[in-house]
Design goal:
The protein is α+β, with helices and mostly antiparallel strands. Helices cover about 15% and strands about 20% of the residues. The chain has two helices and seven strands, in the order E-H-E-H-E-E-E-E-E. Strands 1, 2, 3, 4, 5, 6 and 7 form a seven-stranded mixed sheet that branches. A hairpin with a 5-residue loop joins strand 3 and strand 4. The longest helix is centred in the N-terminal third of the chain and has 10 residues. The protein is globular and about 35 Å long. The protein starts with 15 loop residues before the first strand and ends in a 16-residue tail after the last strand.
């Protein structure tokens, strides 16, 4: 069987991208990623992207939808996150969504088994 581990998030559009388009709600952002054969990034994927030194830190233009329904995220360059408790792995600031705001979407590759803490699993042989 082929194991998929330590997926590299680099400059590859097939693994990760921030959409040009902005979306008014979570479901349209989700559809925007799905239309490109991707999914809204899971927290674990965002941390992997951040660990690979990918940054999209124009504030507030690059605040974007992720898999969490009620939060948007900014992949920024802070060494620590001090926005109250709204932090992912002490690295990625999360914000509550504004009712009238439109945000881009952070799309990641689709997972084999979708869960909050695992984004790559063994592919059945």
């Amino acid at each position: 069987s082929n194991a998929v581990s330590n997926v590299a998030y680099c400059c590859e559009d097939s693994l990760f991208k921030l959409t040009e388009e902005s979306y008014q709600n979570h479901s349209s952002a989700e559809k925007g990623c799905q239309d490109g054969g991707m999914q809204l990034c899971l927290p674990s994927q965002l941390l992997a992207v951040h660990d690979a030194s990918i940054r999209r830190d124009s504030y507030p233009e690059d605040i974007a939808w992720i898999s969490m329904y009620d939060r948007v995220a900014l992949l920024n360059d802070t060494c620590g996150c001090n926005v109250g408790d709204n932090c992912l792995g002490n690295r990625i600031p999360l914000f509550e969504t504004g009712q009238s705001e439109a945000y881009k979407a952070l799309c990641c590759e689709e997972t084999f088994y979708l869960s909050e803490d695992k984004f790559s699993e063994q592919i059945p042989a």
